[in-house]
Structure formats: C-alpha cells, structure tokens
Amino acid sequence: MSAAILSLDHATKAFGGLIAVNDLSFSLQDGELLGLIGPNGSGKTTVLNLISGALKPTSGSISLGGTEIAGQPAHKIARLGIARTFQLVRILPSLTAEQNVVAGGVFGHVRSWGVEAHDRARLLLERVGLSGRGDSPTSSMTYIDQKRLELARALAANPKVLLLDEWLAGLNPSELKIGIDLIRELRNDGISIIMVEHVMDAIRSLCDRCVVMSSGLKIADGDVHGVLADPEVIRAYLGDDHA
Amino acid sequence: MTWLNEKERRIAGFAAIAFGVVALLPLVDQGYYLSISVNIVMYVVLCTAWTLFSGPTHYISLATAAFFGIGTYTVALGIDTVPFPLLLVIAALASGLLACVVGIATLRLSGIYFVIFTLGLAELVRQVVTWLQTNFSSSLGLYVFTDFGEQHIYWMLLGLAAIVYITGWLINRSRLGFAMQIIGNDETVAKHVGIDTARAKVILFIISGAFIGIVGAILAPRFSYVQPPSAFNPMISFQVVIMALLGGTKRIWGPLLGVIPFTILFDQVTAYFPNHTSFVIGIAFMAIVYLLPQGVLGRLEDLVRLRKRFRMVSAEEGNNP
Q1: Residue A64 is inside which H or E element, if any?
Q2: pLDDT (0 to 100) of residue A114
Q3: Which chain B residue has its CA at the smallest distance from A78's CA?
Q4: Which CATH number fits domain B6-319: 2.60.120, 2.60.40, 1.10.3470, 3.30.70?
C-alpha cells in the first residue's frame, strides 16, 4: 500500500451555476477501501460519475495509475480498468443472469469470450452468492439478488478500481450483513474500492479511510473514527447545534 | 466449441431446403406469382437488413429509400460501362459510405430526432440527384437496358436474402451482436462495461445500409427507366418499417412473418382500390401499433409460452391425481 492508483486533482463539475463538485482532491491507494460519505446532495455520486466517465469534469484532472482519464468517454475508462455499480440498480432485463455477468467481462480490459467467459461468470455468480442461478431470468430476482448480480458484472471486468454507489442501500439487516461480508472479501482480495455509502455501520466496519463531502467540497479526509468525530463533519450532517 | 450445434444444423438444413424449393418457382410460373414473389423477396431483404440495425437499437430509420436509390442510380449510371457484379459492389460501398457519414453525424441524436433526420436525408438525396440531372444532363431519367428477366432478379434477391440471414446470424453470435443486445437493454450500462456504443451502432448501420443499396442495384433493371421519384420513393422507407414491425424485430426471421402477408395484402389493395393505397397503409400502421406491438413474432412467442405453461400444468395435474 504505497502508490496512489487513482487520484483526483482539483476536480470540479459545474452544472450551469450549480457547482456539484468543487475543487476536489483526494487519492485512492492501491488495495485501499475508501468510503466517500456526506449528506444528500453533497456531490458523491457526481464524483463517481466523473471518475467513471459518465460526466466530464469542468476542470481539474483525474488519473488512473498515471494515465489521465478526466473527460474520456465512459467506455475507454471502463477498458482501462474502472468498473462500477449504479445507485439505482441497472441490470439487463432481457438477458439471463449469467449473460449479465458475461457482459461485464467481454468488452473491458479482460475481453474474455465464449466458454471461458461463461465459466468465469459462473464462478463470479457463486462468489456473490448466486450459484446455480445463471439461467434464471433477472426480472424474477429479489432486490438484493439484483444488486449481487450487478456486483458480479462489475467484477467480471477484473477491475483495478471498483466504484460502489450505495451498493448497500435498501437492504434489510440480515442482507446488510451478507453485503458487508462480501465487500470485505473483495478488499481482502486486493481490489481498490471507492464506496459511496450512507450506512454508517458499514463505513465503520469496512473502510480504511474516509473522504467526507458537503455541498461539493471536501470537508474531511482521514481515518474513519477520527473523521466521524470531526466537528465539521458532525455539523454537515446534523447542523450547528450538535457540533 | 463446435461450430454448429445440433439444433443449428437442423435449422440450417431446413433453411437450405426451403431456399432450394423457393428458387424453383420461376420454372413453374413466369407471370403473376413470380412478379409478386420478387416483391416479397425484395421486401424480405430490405426489412431484414433494416432490422439488423433497428431491431437491437430501436432506432426507426426512414433512410431506406436513400440507400435503395443510391443502389439503383449506381447501376443506372454504370450499366453501359461497368460489369453488373462490380456495380453491386460499388452500390454496397456507396450506400455503406452514406450510412457511415449519416451514422457518425446522427446516431448521437435520440429517438424522434433520428427518425426525422433520416426522413429528411432520403428527401435531400433525391433533390440533389434531381438537381444534378436537370443541370448537368439532358434528360431527367436514365435507361437501364439489360438481358435480365424477372427470374434473374428473383434469383439474385434470393441469394442476397441468404447472405443477409447468414450475416445476421454471424453478427448475433459475435461480440458485436452481444454488444448490440446490451445497448438495446441499457445504453448506460453498455458504455460502462467498455462498449463503444457509437461505433457499434455505426458499424451496424453501415452493414444495414449496404445491403439495402444492393437491393436497389438489383432492382434497377426492373425499372428500365430510372427517375429520382421512383428510385428514391419514400413509400419504400415507410413500407419497410411497417412490414418489419408487423413481423417483429426481436429475431432475424421476424420480418419475414410481416412481409409475406403485407405484400400480398398490399397487392390486392392496389389491384382493387388503386386510389386508396395510402389510406390502407395508414390504417394498417395504426392497427399494427395498437394490436400487435411486438409483431406477429411476439404473438407467436406468447402462444408458445402459453402452450408450455399449459403442458406444465397438465403434467403437474397428472402427477397429483
């Protein structure tokens, strides 16, 4: 854990007069699990969209292992090894579960195809807890299973950096525990992860480090427990009275 | 991995026999049935080529007449100097090139804008050709004299149909086909798994446009006298859309199910109500959209699914007397 695999340098995104991400700089170390937190509307998802190429930054730079990716189209960034899940789960409804996972690995930097791709997809389905469900139509899946499927699709790309956008949101307590264990396993495998999350228990138990945003600005960056005790962070979440 | 599995081999065998039988038609009849069969095969190729692109992307292209007309004009201009097979290649290249330019310029447009643009394009090309002819040539039309009879055109179209089906089948099992399937499901996901969606769409639009151009080229000898209004007839664009949607665009053989009934119906309508063809087409279009949104193909698949369920239920009942 030394070199930064991903770094944002003064990244800014403005939608007309609204500055959603304001001069944001932070970096993700290789193998690190970084929590990106902040109140609603603070710009977290916009940051993930900038990194994954869904949006182009207005200014600033984003680099992946030394390669500048700011402003590149999403498919190029995906091919360089960044995979993501979406805040509102996006599965491919007309495909089977297995094909959904295969989709993640065919066009990325792995580019597996045919029997090999399907074998990998089955392994990944097993890994996220969907073994033997490869042929099931995705429309009949429960919410957590769809989330698992989306994660398996992201993993099929064998990403260097994985972006999880509120992957744990909407899960019930027992599902949440399964989800947290799954993310922990991924980290132990050495994948560098940025997770945007509102579930504080998950942040506390999983993250090495946290970046806190409020109204587009970074207001804290550091070890999780220190950051969550920071008066500035408490003020952002709960208002002045509690700081 | 074997090249063809058991089922695919059976389908290929069946298709080959079907093509063989259909190819014998000119030996039996050289009149009405051959003539309407030429129309049917022509629209089968046009609609299937159209579906190659519009099926997975859900982009409704009205540029069919533009590609078709370019093919026709390629032959009309070159028939006296260039051998016919070479003209077919040139027609494919020319319409493919137009598709490439149009694709790059417009496939970023979504939905309705794309439809309007392609409609305008066909009209624009027609006006340009008319302008060129009135300014740089003595006559408004071109004669196409060949030794081809109706049966030769029929056989060429059949051959082209076979090539279109094989191409479509090859695309479906390739990465490009899989990419199109993902794009059709969710374009955002497609981009984020590494698919260059614009490029994939342009490639497919080129393939589709090139085939339509070849159809126009093959049909040129049938016109004898080629003029812009007949070569760039916008009715072709609309009919292709109607027939393809009537058949169903989810599978490559879907349009076939729409072309055969519609061509026969349209033939009857033009014979008995020659002044009301547009009216009938309009009614047909609305009926399809309201009654068969997934086409004949969708209805067939519903039936198959119902039968399966019925069988499963009756099997269960058999097990629990």
Answers
A1: strand A59-64
A2: 81
A3: B194
A4: 1.10.3470
